[in-house]
Amino acid sequence: MKNLLRTSFPSLTQNEALARGIAAQFSLLFDPTVEELSDIRTAVSEAVTNAVIHGYGHKNGVVFMELCAEDDVLTVTVRDEGRGIEDIELARRPFYTSMPEAERSGMGFAVMEAFMDSVKVESEPGRGTTVIMKKRLGSDE
Amino acid sequence: MRSTIIKKGGVLTAKLSGELDQHSAAKVRRELDEALRDPGIRRIEFDLAGLTFMDSSGIGVILGRYRTVSRRGGSMGIANAADNVERILRMSGVYTLTTERSAQ
Hints:
The structure holds two protein chains of two kinds.
Chain A: E1 2-10, H1 15-28, H2 34-55, E2 62-70, E3 73-80, H3 88-92, H4 108-115, E4 118-124, E5 128-136
Antiparallel strand pairs in A: 1-2, 2-3, 3-5, 4-5
Helix pairs in contact in A: 1-2, 2-4
Chain B: E1 2-8, E2 11-20, H1 22-35, E3 43-54, H2 57-71, E4 75-79, H3 83-92
Helix pairs in contact in B: 1-2
C-alpha cells in the first residue's frame, strides 16, 4: 500500500501536538508497534518544534509536513521557510543549542536520530530547513 | 498538560500528567518557578506517572529547575517515567543528577 498526506499549518507551538497526532494517525494504517508509534510522535514533535522556534523564531510562518508511506517505510518530511541553519553539523551535535536562554536542551536532532531509522537535514540560511526522516514500520516482529 | 505541586518539609513534588512539549513546557515552567520562589525548598521530585508524552523540551524544564535547587545546595529526584519518556531521560543523562530521597 502507498499513501501520502500533505499538510501545512501556522508555526504555533500549539500545533506540535496536532502534527504528532496526525503523523501517528497516518502511521496506524501501517500497523506499527506501540513503540514505533511513540517514536514517530516524539520525532515529529522535535522536528516541528525546531521549525517553530528555530526556523521562524516564534514569528509567523507556515510549517509543511508530508507523510508518505510505501510498503512498510514511513517518510516524514517537515519543512519551514524560516531562517535556515548556518552549520548543520553543529546543529545536529548532541546538546548543542543556539538558544540556551530558552532552556532548549540541544537534543532535538539526537532524539530524531535515535527514534527514526534515518534523518536527513537540508538547509539554506535565509531560505529554510527541510528534515526528512524515515522509519520502517512493523519491523520488530 | 496538568501539574500538581505539593510542598512538604522542604521538598517540592511535581506530579506531571498529560503531554509535555515545547508548548506545554511554558506553563509547567511558570508554575514550578512560582513554587520554587519559596527559599525553603531544597529538593524537587518529579513524579512522571501521569506523563503520556514528553519530547526533549521536557529535559529543558527538568534541567532548568534542577539548576535552581542545586544553587541552594539542594537535590532532585525523578520517578515513575513511562517507557517512552524514560528513553529520552536516559539519553539526556539527567539521571546522573538525581539522588534518592533517603540520601538527603
